[in-house]
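ok posting inputs for the pyridoxal-5'-phosphate job
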Amino acid sequence: MKYKKRKYFLAGRINMIQRSKIRELFEMASKMKDVISLGIGEPDFDTPQNIKEAAKRAIDEGYTHYTPNAGIPEFRDAIAEYYKKFYGVEVPDDHVIVTAGAYEATYLAFEALLEDGDEVIIPDPAFVSYMEDAKLAEAKPVRLPLREENGFQPDPDELLELVSKRTRVIVMNYPNNPTGATLDEEVARAVADIAEDYNIYILSDEPYEHFLYDGAKHQPMVKYAPYNTILANSFSKTFAMTGWRLGFTIAPEEIIRDMIKLHAYILGNVTSFIQIAGIEALRAKESWEAVEKMRRTYEERRNLVLQHLREMPHISAFEPKGAFYIFANIRDTGMKSEEFAKWLLQEAGVVVIPGTAFGKQGEGYVRISYATKRELLIEAMERMKKALESL
Ligand SMILES: Cc1ncc(COP(=O)(O)O)c(C=O)c1O
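and the output
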């Protein structure tokens, strides 16, 4: 059959979503040989073996049918138990919903909480999906600048100034993508106070909570604003399970109920045997040993990249204490972020992400991911150094 081009009718909504601005960069890279990508945002480790075995066993044991929409009760239990164990936070089981990763969790939260004209405070720079989620919910994004001099944490006074009668949600994401920043307890408390005083929800996206360095501690927002926090979390980074699509949300019961309504029609439930593997991930000693091993490896790589960056001219790096990203300041090169990323690809065959992909405040920065093997990181750093020295 010959394919005939025809006009399709599409909802205007779909045109609101912006495809990634960095596609052009990746397209350029795909046509080149010998490129090292420091652009990726996913662990290069394999999922721990005990979790893989649990999924295989679950298939054999017949976990191949629908589950309750909110998730298998034992899994919801295991999630609640995990919050108690790690953070001393009591979470009733019916405040938990199992989602297809943090992506689905944030989407559900935006759709359930926001409508036309409502305002959502989104940090700048920030992970890209919040802006697109806001547009789909027809909400108005209000950007909160994050500055290097504040350790890329929100300034509570500035946040307060952005709060209006229409503010419904404040987005938080620590440890942070793209900056690698972590949150100080006093800032967490200040944001929680603002949220409680003005009855605003905090959507706290915390998928990097276990990747912390130099003794940094995670500050789960649900601990500071238990009645105002909607937590989005994920197994993707913690257990190197990006392809499994497993995450969860913790929120007040009334909100969870509404999120479940939507989730029931989008997904029904997260894959049954994957939920069983999730129980294993949370409860087995082996999985946590694997997480600690990955954390130590990331820390070594972070130190390695920072050390190399310090030896390069025209670039300076904010020292991150979390996630697996370094947000490096390239203003001294005289180039804009996108220009720099293209130049580096051409000169050195190294992919980094322009900071502007995460918001206007990212101008003058690039994001370097160190979720890459040590040898490749060293090679990439040597190439970068040579290119920068030639400027
Ligand atoms: C901050 C942040 N939130 C959410 C996600 C989406 O993760 P998931 O695989 O859990 O959907 C990512 C993935 O890169 C992320 O960096």
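notes: Residues 41, 101-103, 127, 173, 177, 205, 207, 234, 236, 242, 247 surround pyridoxal-5'-phosphate (CB under 6 Å). The CA atoms of residues 119 and 164 lie 8 Å apart.
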